Amino acid sequence: MYNLKSQLKLAAVITLALASLGAVSTVQAQAAKPDNEVSFNAAVTTDYRYRGISQSRLKPALQGGADYVNNPSGFYAGTWVSTIKWVKDAGGDGDIEWDLYGGKKGELAPGVSYDVGGLYYFYPSNALATSANTFELYGQVGYGPGYIKYSHSTTNLFGTSNSKNSGYLDIGANLDIGTGLLLNLHVGHQGVKNNGAFAYTDYKIGVTKDFGICTVALAAIYADTKAYVSPSPSSKNLARTGAVLTVSKTF
User: Fold this and answer.
1) Residue whose C-alpha is closest to residue 114's, from 78, 153, 74, 80
2) Residue 81, helix vs strand vs coil
3) Distances from the Cα of 167 to the Cαs of 154, 182, 198, in angstroms?
């Protein structure tokens, strides 16, 4: 019988064990950072997957954003945009997701990091019966390359009626496996308040490499649900196992 609690507990144990191994690796000295930093990013992906579900109908998407961080305090703010298809597929309008976020990150203890903040997902002109616009508060604790994060919606969740106070648990690790490769591991569970049929667990395993001129990531992604499908006549399962290739650049 499927047991979500046991599966997530096992994932947490594995992640923390991997994080412990990574935490004992040699820490390289870093150059002093300026007090204030602004960066920009751009990406193209073969499929915009969010929490395991395709937001672009299993098609490519263009993405970009900007970030500001105050290094002495750890406060940060940013914005990010992606092309999408799911809002139109749900009967609304608009083909853009625009995220606005801010928070604070730092260290709780040597090697133990934290990150807390809020994220607003804005879908211009979404025109759904229940607005797709969503706000979540989040908190994350990391140790070495491993982390555990929880996000909690203070609004309805992505156009689902009566779903305020839904939560998403994210457990993962990004492990240096040599030759500039990072092994990306993730398991997450999306709970949907008062809408249990839409709850699911998603998984990801991938690799990332920074080539200097760009960063390339390849991942296999899957979610154990058939509740999310594209419109007829294709009716594609938007959670099915898929290989996702992303090329990005931060500058």
Assistant:
1) 74
2) strand
3) 10, 28, 12
Look up residue 88 and give its DSSP letter: H
CB 74 within 8 A of CB 108: no
Residue 24 has pLDDT above 70, yes or no: no
Can you name the residues that pair with 42 across neighbouring β-strands?
64, 249
Cβ–Cβ < 8 Å for 189, 171: no
Given the structure tokens 């994932």, which residue do they identify? 11
CATH number for the domain running over 4-22+36-250: 2.40.160.40
Strand, helix or coil for residue 155: coil
Q: How far apart are CA 188 and CA 47, in angstroms?
A: 19
How far apart are the C-alpha atoms of 188 and 168, rounded to whole Å? 7
- My answer on whether omega of the bond before 145 falls inside 30° of 0, hence cis, is no
d(CA 14, CA 37): 34
* pLDDT tens, position by position, 151-185: 999 999 999 999 999 999 999 999 999 999 999 99
Query: Are 38 and 67 spatial neighbours (Cβ–Cβ below 8 Å)?
Result: yes
Distance CA(172)–CA(186), nearest Å, equals: 4
153's CB contacts (< 8 A; 6+ apart) are 134, 135, 136, 163, 164, 165, 166, 167, 193
**Is residue 218 pLDDT above 90, yes or no?**
yes
Which residues partner with 194 through β-bridges? none
| Residue among 168, 122, 176 nearest 149 (CA) | 168
